[in-house]
Input
Amino acid sequence: MDQSERKNAIAVSFGSPGIGFEFARKLGSKLTARVAYHTFNLKDYEVKDVSIGSEKVSILGNLETQAWDFGAEYAPFTNSSFKLTFGLGILSNVNLNAKVNYQEDITYGDVTVAAANVGHILIDSKWSGTAPFLGIGFGRAVPKNRIGLSFEFGTYFASSPEVNLDATKLLGPTKDQEADLQDAFETLKFIPRAQIKLAIKL
Output
């Protein structure tokens, strides 16, 4: 079969939603339907020497993403690889948490508290449900040649995450700030959607 007659493609992508696997079918000269699955898992990523006021803390982070995309791309210009991407994402699991520990002992007047006895703060945030997405890019989901490379930049429009706050030992009273933290996260409704993709025409 001639390459120009092939209408399907599979692809692998790398970017902010994680590693993705996609199937695409060309519906017309400008419109292509796409279905993709994204997944990513980062465990125990540690950042040290973070300053909070005059204190030094370490942050241990975990990130997990699992999402399905059902959408399409529209290429308005025949002789250009520019495209618009749009659709609906299903966020089956997008979870980010961070554990904050003091690195150094804390001194109050003549009293010194060992860092291990100060306790920790754990912030857990989770996005779920459906999230429309919109973006722009260059390159085709079903490439003109056998293999094609494309780039996309956009965002999911998600609902606010569910946030849980836990604190132990001397930091225990911090748990009372959970409602304020939830309010602070209300603005985090835009999840970046940027990726590079390698497609193979079938």
